[in-house]
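Sample intake sheet
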Amino acid sequence: MKETFDIIILVGRPAAGKSELIAYLRSVDLATRIKRFHIGGFEEIDDFPMLWAWFEEDHILSDMGKPRLHTTADGYFTHDYLWDLLIRRIELEYNKRVHEKAHYHDSKTTLFEFSRGSEHGGFGRAFTQLSDDVLGRSAVLYIEVSYEESLRKNRRRFNPERPYSILEHGLPDDNLRTLYRDSDWHDLSRDDEAYLHIGDNRIPYTVLKNEDDVTTGGGEALGSRLEGVMDLLWERYCLKQS
């Protein structure tokens, strides 16, 4: 029997700790990672580099005196459907990897990472952009922080010298408030404490509480908390697969 997840969809507010958690997982040797967290030699697909490329391209186009393609000058998408496009791009990148390597999930766990707020459709809308095949292979790990904690960490992590960095990018306060203050996560998960219901799919999920910011320090404090959450997620995942 396989010991690892195929796909983990890692979600939460901006600066909730998703990238910090991934950095921690990379620091754990493979055998320990499989035993404690059921994650194999993992690959991450994050929509941030995709959307950041759109901002860069639009900045270049503006300098050329040409119309922007994806974003406004004040940092918003020109069309709501571009949020859906990002999710479909994540799946496209995943499908390329599966196509290129036979028996891909015998050795690999894929992490899909993104944030969504109610203003642009929320997590519920994002999940509907994924195929039944992907949803059937997936488990969801939600990192829970309040909007206030998301705002605090977003301000703290931002490095204006490296705005393109996974670990050091940030949003202006006004953009964060508009796009991410409201979240549909609790509405989406309210009716079932173990599975999200997306169309005909039941997707196992668990919640890593991070209001105390255990992800910044990392180390065994994070490892212990994550192990308990991932054990429960694995149990739900196996029940669903059986």
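Comment: Residues 164-168 have pLDDT under 50 and may be disordered. The radius of gyration is 18 Å.
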